[in-house]
């Protein structure tokens, strides 16, 4: 059934950014807002498969949207979790250079961290690394105390309660299959019937480019999915990692490399790798979608990306199917780790926006159109900075939509 009265804003996507945006919109009372989520539950994809890290802002180009939102969003997230009783831990992390060749990249990371105003960041000699992480080896490191851990699914569910308390609606199993314009607004065809809204915000994550096209907007990018696979340390090996341990990332690739992450609910994850996924929402090695695969391999931007990074891509696939190769990568940081110390863990799929030139979009990408805002690339630290990002998107909506 069509709504008798249209919503002021329909937010498509019930991940952490979509629900945070709805929460921000409802900070001003009297607005009618609905969140439309395709799956039966919120946080079903990128948010629910997140490693749970509260990022510091170490890696991001100073002045970028990622850097700006991470700094303000991280502290807002810490305050929110403290106020709402959500389990979290500002535990800190170390980034470890395992060879002299990685020192220049470590130097650049330190410069970025200081430019982004990270409090307490300090350089570590090998003996200082061992004081923080006795089982980790490296020639130098950075200690970043502002990094933390949390469960982002719990955060999203708390955001959703605030949305409902503010008069907003959240509808699950409400996949949007069509959007058409009518006088004074839009009609969204969903699995639960038509929804009228004066305006629309697209936070559809892995489907965001398709949603933009469904709305008649050229996104200018395509989502290329990459699956990240994890192992978990066996319980009797948890003591080998106290908090978070990262390698120095390859600056030419938009992934951080395999690392160790203590989880807020217990246990330690090891990973992820980054392999091309043959299904946008495919979390198993065997997951396959003909449509998704066809769209990836017929997109010139993806082909240019693969041509440039094919060696690294093959290495990631090799680690995906050869546990021993995965272990060898982890042993650079933690030499004591062995084959029997790792148990199969979960996986996530990253919605990586890629431009026609083959360049992965590194920063947030948001496109505005008449009565619409499309969030087309919201990479890490999107979960960390979701409160800040949600307010930024709500601000765009207020200007674009002339909301009261």
Task: Write up what this structure looks like.
The protein contains ten helices and 20 strands. The mean pLDDT is about 95. The longest helix is centred in the C-terminal third of the chain and has 22 residues. The chain is an alpha+beta fold and about 400 residues long. Strands 5, 6, 7, 13, 14, 15, 16, 17 and 18 form a nine-stranded mixed sheet that branches. Strand 1, helix 1 and strand 2 form a beta-alpha-beta unit. It has three domains: about 150 residues, FAD/NAD(P)-binding domain; about 50 residues, no CATH class; about 140 residues, 2-Layer Sandwich (D-Amino Acid Oxidase, Chain A, domain 2).
Distance between the termini: 27 Å
Count of separate structural domains: 3
Please give the count of helices.
Answer: 10
Question: What do we call the CATH topology of the largest domain?
Answer: FAD/NAD(P)-binding domain
What about the largest sheet?
9 strands, mixed
* Mean pLDDT figure: 94
Characteristics of this structure?
404 residues; FAD/NAD(P)-binding domain; nine-stranded mixed sheet; D-Amino Acid Oxidase, Chain A, domain 2; alpha+beta; globular; single chain; eight-stranded mixed sheet; 3 domains
List the helices and strands and how they pair.
Blueprint: E1 7-12, H1 16-25, E2 33-36, E3 53-54, H2 65-84, E4 88-89, E5 93-97, H3 103-115, E6 122-124, H4 126-132, E7 140-144, E8 148-150, H5 152-165, E9 169-171, E10 176-182, E11 185-190, E12 193-202, H6 208-214, E13 222-233, E14 244-247, E15 259-262, E16 268-271, E17 275-276, H7 290-297, H8 300-321, H9 323-331, E18 342-354, E19 365-369, E20 372-377, H10 386-401
Parallel strand pairs: 1-2, 1-12, 2-9, 5-14, 12-20
Antiparallel strand pairs: 3-8, 4-8, 5-7, 6-7, 10-11, 11-12, 13-16, 13-17, 13-18, 14-15, 15-16, 19-20
Helix pairs in contact: 1-5, 1-10, 2-10, 8-9
């Amino acid at each position: 059934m069509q709504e008798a009265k249209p919503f002021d804003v329909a937010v498509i996507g019930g991940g952490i950014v979509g629900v945070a945006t709805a929460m921000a919109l409802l900070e001003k009372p009297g607005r009618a807002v609905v969140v439309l989520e395709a799956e039966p539950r919120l946080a079903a994809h990128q948010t629910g498969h997140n490693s749970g890290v509260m990022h510091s802002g170490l890696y991001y180009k100073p002045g970028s949207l990622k850097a700006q939102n991470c700094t303000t969003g991280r502290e807002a997230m810490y305050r929110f979790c403290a106020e709402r009783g959500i389990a979290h831990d500002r535990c800190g992390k170390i980034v470890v250079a395992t060879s002299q060749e990685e020192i220049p990249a470590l130097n650049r990371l330190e410069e970025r961290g200081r430019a982004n105003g990270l409090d307490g960041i300090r350089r570590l000699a090998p003996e200082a690394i061992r004081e923080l992480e006795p089982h980790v080896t490296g020639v130098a490191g950075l200690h970043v105390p502002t990094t933390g851990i949390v469960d982002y699914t719990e955060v999203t569910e708390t955001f959703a309660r605030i949305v409902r308390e503010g008069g907003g609606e959240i509808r699950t199993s409400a996949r949007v299959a069509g959007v058409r314009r009518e006088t004074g607004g839009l009609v969204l065809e969903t699995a639960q019937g038509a929804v009228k809204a004066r305006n629309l915000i697209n936070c559809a994550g892995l489907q965001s480019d398709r949603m933009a096209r469904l709305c008649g907007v050229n996104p200018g990018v395509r989502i290329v999915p990459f699956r990240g696979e994890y192992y978990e340390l066996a319980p009797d090996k948890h003591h080998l990692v106290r908090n978070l341990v990262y390698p120095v990332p390859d600056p030419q690739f938009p992934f951080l490399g395999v690392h160790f992450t203590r989880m807020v609910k217990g246990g330690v994850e090891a990973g992820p790798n980054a392999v091309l996924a043959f299904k946008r929402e495919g979390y198993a090695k065997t997951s396959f979608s003909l449509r998704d695969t066809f769209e990836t391999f017929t997109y010139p931007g993806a082909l240019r990306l693969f041509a440039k990074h094919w060696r690294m891509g093959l290495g990631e696939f090799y680690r995906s199917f050869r546990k021993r190769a995965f272990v060898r990568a982890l042993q650079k940081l933690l030499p004591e780790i062995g084959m029997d110390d790792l148990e199969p863990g979960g996986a996530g799929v990253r919605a990586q926006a890629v431009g026609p030139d083959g360049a992965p979009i590194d920063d947030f990408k948001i496109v505005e159109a008449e009565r619409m805002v499309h969030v087309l690339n919201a990479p890490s630290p999107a979960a960390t900075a979701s409160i800040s990002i949600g307010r930024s998107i709500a601000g765009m909506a207020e200007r674009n939509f002339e909301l009261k």
